[in-house]
Every structure is written in C-alpha cells, then in structure tokens.
Specification:
The structure holds two protein chains of two kinds. Chain A is α/β, with parallel strands linked by helices. Chain A has three domains: 4-236, 3-Layer(aba) Sandwich (Rossmann fold), CATH 3.40.50; 247-331 and 419-533, P-loop containing nucleotide triphosphate hydrolases (Rossmann fold); 346-416, no CATH class. Chain A has 18 helices and 23 strands. Chain A is globular and about 70 Å long. Chain B is mainly alpha-helical. Chain B has helices at 11-36, 40-52, 55-80, 88-103, 111-140, 144-164, 199-216, 218-228, 230-235, 240-267, 278-288, 293-316, 322-343, and strands at 2-5, 177-180, 269-271, 344-347. The chains are: A alpha/beta, B mainly alpha. Chain A binds chain B through residues 14, 302-304, 323-325, 328, 334, 336, 341-348, 352, 356-357, 359-360, 365, 368-371, 373, 400, and chain B through 7-8, 216-219, 221-222, 224-225, 228-229, 231-239.
C-alpha cells in the first residue's frame, strides 16, 4: 500500500484552477520529484497536504487512512514533515530549543530537555546529521540550518519529508551532502517529495518524477527513463532550446572596478577590495551563495551607492557619487534582483513604468516638467510590441502583469536605449522556462550588439550557459574571473564555500582573446596597470 | 474570516466607496440621535435645511468649505507621497501670521497685487513651517507625524503670545486680536451681504492646479511613484528626498493659504480662534476624497455642510453640536473600511 496518496485533488482560486484532478502516490523508501514551472501548482498541492489550504475536491490518504483536511496538526501527526525553502527557525534560540519548539504543551512548566537531547543525539547518529545541540542557530551556516530543519521534522516522527526547493541556498558541495542524507533516509524507509526546477538535481536524486503543468499532472515517469530534454519538454509543453554562446572577440572595457570597498552603516565592509573589469561583447558571471555581497555589488553598479574606497570607472569615466539617474544616463541598463520591490511601481500604469528612467528628458516630458502622455504611450506601444509584453495595453496597471511579462517590461526599459553596460541581477528568478529563454536571448543579443554584461546569479547552470567568464563572491571578496569553459562547477563550489582559489587546482590563465583585449586596453589608456582579469 | 485581494477593481466600486461611507456614518449617527431622544428624520432634515435650506445657509456652507478645501489639499498631496503631515493646523496659523504681518500696513499695494502678494507670503510661511519636520524626516528619519503634530502646539502658543503681546490691537478693547488687514488686502465678497468671499474661487483654482500637477507633470509622477513604491522610485532615478521635500513645501503652502483666506477673506484680522481645527479636519476631507484633489472640493463641501447644518439643528432640537464631530469622525472611519473593501473581499469559512 502506498504511504501517501493524493486522490483527485482539485483546487480553484476564483476562475483559476491551481490543481486539477491530481492523483499521485508515494511509496516508502521513494524519492518523488515534483517538477513544474512557477505557477504550475506544486506549492498549492503541498499546501493542501500540509493543511494550509482546503481542497475543493478529492482527498489525501496516509497509510490508507484519510487525512483530515485543513489541519496542519493532523498532517504533522500523520507523519508529514515540511522543510520550507525559507527556513522557519528562531535565530536567537539554540538548535535543541528550535527542534523542541512547538512539540510541548504551552501549559507545561517543565521542559523535557534531557529526553529531547537524548532523542536528538540518537537521530543525529542514526541519520548521519551532525549538529551541535547547544549552538545558537544564528551561528550556523545555511547548510547546517537546513540540517536542523530536517531534524525538526524527524523529531516530530515524520515519515514523509517535503523539501521545497532545498538547494536554492546551497553550494554544490552542500547540495551533494544533502543528497547523501536523503539517500540514507530513504534506505530507512522514509518517503521524500523533492520540489525543484533544477533538472540535473532531479535526475540525480529522485526515483520518479511527476511533472505538473497548469495544475495538471502531465507525466509521471521513472527517473531512470527520463533525461534532461524530455523532462524540460514535458514541463514546458514544447522543445526548449538552450542558448548557445558563440565566442566573440571582446572590445574595450566598459566597467572597471579597482580595489573597491563599500562599507555599510556599521562600517562593516560589504564589498572588500574587489577588482573587476567587464569588456564589450562579454558576459561576466558572479557566482556565490546568497548574501555574500551580491546586493552590495549590484547597488554600486546601479548607482544606489558609491565606493568608500577604490575606483569605479564606467565607460572610461570615474563614478564618484551615487546617483541612479546619472548611471542610467551614462549608458547602464539595470535589471534589479526583485521586480516588485525595486523594479516597477505596481500601482502605476505600464507606460508610466516604461518611462520612469528618463522622466525629465524629451520626448517623455517637455521642459523637464510637462509629461507628454501621447509620446509616452506611443513609446510604450512600440516597446510592448517589440518585447512581446502580454498585457491589456499601455494604460493597464503594472501589478496585473505576470512575472515573466513584468520582467519583459523591465528588460524593455533597460535594454531599449542600447546601454553599453548591463547589470543583470538574478534576471530569471521566479520565471518559467519560456520567459527564462526570452531573458537569456535578450542578454545574448545585447552582448552581440557590443554591450558588456555582468550577470549575478545563484544558479551555476545559468552562469555556465551564458557567461564568458565567471568570478566568485564570498564574504564581500571577489575572486579573479575564470574562463567559463575550463572552470568546473566543483571548483566554483569550493570557492563559493570560501576556499582560496590558490588552494584549488584551477585551469590555466586567461584565454588568448582575453590577453589581447587587456593588452589593447592597456595601450589605450596608458598608465593603467594590467589587471589579472 | 479570510481577507482576499481583488485582482480587478471595478471603477464603480471606487466611486461608490465614499457614498457608502457617508450612508453608513449617517446610519451610525442616527443611533446617537435616537439615544438623545430626538427623531432621526427630523434631525437630519433640520441638518440639511440648516446647511442648504436658504441662501444664507448656502453661503455659510460654502464659506466654511474654503479653509477645508485648502487644508484638504494640503493633506491629500502630502499623503499621496506618504508624508503624513498632521501639522495643517500649525501651518494654517503660520499662513495667517504672514498675512497679518504684511497685510496690516507694512506693505501697501493695489488690491490686484496685494491679494496675490498676501497669498504668496502666506503659502511660503506655511511651507516654511514644514521645512524643519521634512528635513528631519529626510535626513535623520525622524517620524513626521510626531514633529508636525507637536509643532501645532508650539505655533499656536506663539500666536497666542503675539496676540497677547506685541501684535495686540490697542483698539481691541482687550481682546487678543491683531490690527485689521488694510482694505487693499481684503478679499472681495463673492455674494453681497454674505460672508462668502473670493477665497472659494482661489480654493477651486488651487484644486484644479493640484489635480493638473498630479496628472500631467513630472512632479506629480514623482509624488505618486514615491508614495506607491519608494525603492522602485529611487532605483529608476527619482530623487526621493527632493520629492518628499518639494511635496511637503507644497502641502504646507496650501495649509498656509487656508490661514490667509480666513484672515484676509473672512475675519479681517487675526485671532486665536480663526480655526476650529481646520487643519485636522482637512485630514478627514482628504481621506473622504480618497486623496483626489478634485474630490477634495466635494468632500470639503460635505463636511462643511455637516458642521453648518449641525449648528442650526442643535439650536432647533436638543442635540449637542458635537454630533457634527461624531458624524465626520464616523465618515472617516467608514471611508477607511469601504476603501479596504474595494481592494479586498471578505470571505467567511
């Protein structure tokens, strides 16, 4: 008998059918991967299982007994454990306290710490999940925190573990150690639902893949019979072509950072002596685990902050003061990390958001004061057409756009003036495959036209398929960049975890084109010393 | 009970929200009227008659709406930029101070220049009263609600000092009031033998200008962008601090104009009671108008109708005039709830 079974689950939100007649089952000892684009219904289904939502139709069985709907308590009691993508740990408490949290009655005066400690030690031993029970969670690394999340679920006697995008915050090495943990768990009869859109991970860890598209199961295959392209095709519903990167001769430098240090209010450096050069016709990738200084670097290049120390040269001219407007007018196109937070004003119309970067420039406004609405709408109509933004028209509210179309709007605003330098910070985060291909295509086209591009991403796959060179950021320090064709994911992973590049066996130095480019640069502006890049 | 976001908001809902809010507040107000023991229909009828029933009542209602339009605009424009200016009252008195200072003989110009001049200095003074709070906000992140609110008391006490001391009119028989505005500075009457003056025209022009600015200019765009999403505004190159400071100065300017029009249009001199809280009521006016500059005119007329009507109603039946404050307060609460209900729907489960 199946350990967990979904029977004909249907869930509607208004006219949207988030889950449509989903029937799925899971045996003990099995890893089921749930694959699907954003909005395909993966999270909705898991929320129904965990009691956050009520299904409109259908029911769930655990071990043959129906699970009471809409009750998280019942789900936990039935042995369902959820490891959320964003951890739900109290940072100021210790590991042991976090694990016990919520398992004891509110009214009990004593804490059964000794018993809990014993159980935790036994679990750590059994499953090979080593943690220090008395360490405060705030002192743990991301990988360790995830381990605590898993232990938290196991402590509640979970038999089915749901992992929602568990590798999003991990280095490749940490992900590998997570996978071996999962393998040891399945050997002991646990069942695991692994939610991801990273195909190679799914192929690596799962036994079976269920593919969701528009709320429906469109395929359920044994992983052994699947490969990357077949899964991608199933997920999107058509063939997906990976972008190909034609080698190109690079031109002159568009951005040059030399020993740049950026301090935050508490005078802690968020960027520490970084140096970086981006040339024309070149995409440089910045790899790194989230929170290692990527935002600080993006802020600097977006004009939101200026270097505390060091020099920042943009298209040959020094940048000394922080001004987004100035940066834009010097020819920088920026794709921000968070569309909703800093990309668009959702309550304003499409055309208003499309002109927001040159409000005081004709033809958007006359005399820098009166907005020429006709001209703006005309421009918006052109961009909507050119960038294929699906919308009701230029006067529609921007918050009504889907993620992909909102990103197209931002691309239209950033790329249509033909910028010499493009900063793309997580440009495909939260987008579906179709939109990802579009964004990548646009970036490659910009490279072709002669732009220099800095791509910040946490997804190594993305970096490898788009970048000419890749550098790693760790604790605000940036390594030199490496040829994307010769560096491996493993080597980058070690650097992402903080290893010095000097200690890693690395591919040989720069390619011939790179060497040529840096020599010609040096000839162009005499007196600038050759940089490692 | 669950609250769900509506994806599409029908325009009729937005238009209906204030109407529904007014209806609900009148309904809730009727409970109080019943409590006092009066007849609800009679009380409301008297209220409407007292506000609109005669040409005298009508001109009174219009007269009372003038300062409310100005302070309503002051609140509306500042709130649009999420700058919560609660200091309309103080800025109003600053405008009144400036009009009194320059208008009682210090400067003499022909009326065609004198009136605009008084309005200009009044607006500048109102804006200046907001300069310190807004700079504290943009540069030190000091909460503007606290600073603007507390400045009201400082300014009012300062006006009190001036009227009891250096500015006191020696001919005032001991009343704390200033000398009169010279004839060239007094607003002409709009309707003979009434108190209704040209300030109404200026207030309406102010609303139109304010609306046009919000709708057609870069300034208006920046105010809306900063109000809706300051980080996106900053990212796209808008100078957020400059926008907030500019908005605050305009807001203070409108509140200052309310003071000018009360001194130079209605009273003719400055007293400590030229404003029975117009600065605060302006916030209610702006909320009821959903921060729309043109709707401010209507909502100011409505609120002034309640105040004027409640005065005469309380004389006729035994209901205290405070019913007006209650009704205005209820209508603000109802508009907040009904605006929320236009954006969200409630679902019971």
């Amino acid at each position: 008998m199946a350990l967990l079974a979904f029977h004909h689950i249907t869930k509607r939100f208004g006219s949207l059918i988030a889950n449509n007649d989903i029937t799925l089952s899971l045996e003990s000892g099995e890893v089921l991967a749930l694959l699907g684009e954003n909005g395909a219904g993966k999270t909705t289904l898991m929320n129904i299982l965990y009691g956050h939502y009520l299904a409109d139709e259908g029911y769930i069985e655990v071990d043959g007994t129906p699970l009471p709907p809409g009750s998280t308590d019942a789900a936990i009691k039935a042995g369902i454990g959820m490891v959320h993508q964003h951890f739900t740990l109290a940072e100021n408490l210790t590991v042991l306290e976090n694990i016990m949290l919520g398992t004891e009655s509110l009214w009990s005066l004593s804490q059964k710490q000794t018993a809990a400690r014993k159980k935790l030690a036994q679990m750590s031993l059994d499953y090979g999940l080593a943690v220090a029970p008395d360490a405060p969670v705030s002192a743990l690394s991301v990988g360790e925190r995830q381990r605590v999340e898993i232990l938290k679920a196991l402590y509640r006697d979970a038999r089915v573990l749901i992992l929602d995008e568990p590798t999003a915050v991990l280095t490749p090495q940490e992900a590998e150690s997570l996978f071996s943990t999962l393998e040891s768990l399945t050997k002991r009869g646990f069942a695991i639902i692994f939610i991801s859109h990273k195909l190679h991970e799914i192929l690596r860890i799962s036994d079976r893949v269920a593919v969701l598209r528009r709320g429906q199961i469109v395929g359920s295959v044994a992983t052994a019979d699947a490969d990357r392209s077949s899964l991608a095709e199933m997920m999107v519903g058509r063939k997906v072509e990976r972008p190909s990167l034609d080698p190109m001769a690079t031109g002159k430098a568009v951005v040059r950072l030399e020993g740049v240090t950026l301090q935050n209010r508490n005078e802690v450096p968020t960027l520490d002596q970084i140096s970086l050069t981006v040339h024309q016709h070149q995409i440089i990738g910045i790899a790194g685990v989230a929170g290692n200084g990527q935002s600080a670097l993006a802020d600097l290049l977006s004009g939101l902050s200026s270097p505390t120390k060091g020099t920042f040269e943009l298209l040959g001219q020094a940048v000394t003061r922080a001004s987004p407007a100035d940066i834009v007018h010097r020819g920088v196109g920026r794709i921000p990390e968070d569309r909703h937070h800093s990309g668009v004003v959702g309550d304003m119309t499409l055309w208003e958001n499309l002109v927001s970067e040159d409000l005081r420039v004709p033809p958007v406004s006359r005399g820098g004061f009166l907005i020429d609405q006709k001209a703006c709408i005309k421009r918006a109509e052109r961009l909507i057409e050119q960038f294929d933004i699906r919308c009701e028209g230029p006067e529609a509210e921007t918050k009504l756009l889907s993620g992909g179309n909102m990103q197209k709007l931002i691309l239209a605003r950033a790329l249509s003036p033909n910028p010499g330098f493009i900063l793309a910070n997580q440009p495909v985060r939260g987008l579906d495959e179709g939109a990802i291909a579009y964004v990548h295509g646009q970036l490659l086209a910009a490279r072709e036209r002669g732009a220099g591009i800095l791509l910040i991403s946490e997804d190594l796959d993305e970096l490898f398929s788009l970048c000419d060179r890749i550098a790693v950021i760790y604790h605000g320090k940036l390594t030199r960049s490496f040829d994307a064709k010769s560096v491996t994911a493993g080597q980058l992973g070690l650097m992402m975890a903080g290893q010095d590049p000097g200690d890693i066996e690395l591919p040989s130095e720069q390619t011939i084109e790179q060497a040529k480019a840096s020599i010609s640069d040096t000839l162009q502006d005499q007196g600038t010393k050759i940089h490692a890049d | 009970m669950q609250i769900e976001l509506r994806e599409h908001i029908a325009p009729w809902r937005i238009a209906l929200a204030p109407v529904a809010a007014v209806a609900v507040s009148l309904l809730l107000g009727s409970i109080l009227i019943l409590w006092v023991g009066a007849s609800v229909s009679e009380a409301y009828l008297l209220l409407v008659k007292g506000a609109l029933g005669s040409s005298f009542a009508l001109t009174e209602t219009f007269t009372r709406s003038i300062p409310l339009i100005f302070t309503g605009l002051a609140a509306a424009i500042a709130f649009r930029a999420r700058f919560y200016n609660i200091g309309g009252e103080g800025q109003l008195y600053c405008g009144a101070l400036a009009a009194t200072f320059f208008g009682t003989g210090l400067v003499t110009l022909p009326p065609l220049l004198m009136i605009p001049f008084l309005m200009l200095v009044g607006a500048l003074a109102g804006g200046a009263a907001l300069a310190v709070p807004v700079l504290l906000k943009t540069h030190l992140k000091v909460d503007e609600v606290v600073t603007t609110l507390l400045l009201n008391f400082v300014i009012l006490l300062f006006v009190g000092y001036l009227l009891e001391g250096p500015w006191k009119d020696p001919m005032s028989m001991g009343w704390p009031q200033s000398e009169s505005i010279i004839d060239e500075g007094v607003f002409p009457k709009l309707v003979d033998k009434s108190r209704l003056h040209f300030g109404l025209l200026f207030a309406v022009i102010g609303s139109v200008l304010c609306w046009a600015m919000m709708r057609f200019t870069v300034w208006g765009y920046e105010i809306r962008a900063v109000g809706h999403n300051p980080s996106a505004a900053r990212f796209s190159g808008i100078n957020v601090n400059a926008t907030v400071i500019r908005t605050a100065l305009i807001s203070g300017g409108f509140a200052g104009l309310a003071g000018v029009s009360e001194v130079a249009g209605l009273k003719g001199y400055l007293t400590l009671d030229i404003s029975p809280g117009f600065g605060y009521t302006g916030i209610a006016v702006a909320m009821l108008a959903q921060l729309h500059p043109m709707a401010v005119i209507l909502s100011a007329l409505f609120i002034s109708m309640i105040y004027v009507g409640a005065d005469s109603m309380s004389r006729a039946v035994n209901i205290p005039t405070y019913i007006a404050d209650v009704l205005v307060g209820l209508s603000v609460l109802s508009i907040l709830v009904s605006v929320m209900l236009t954006r969200y729907r409630l679902r019971w489960r």
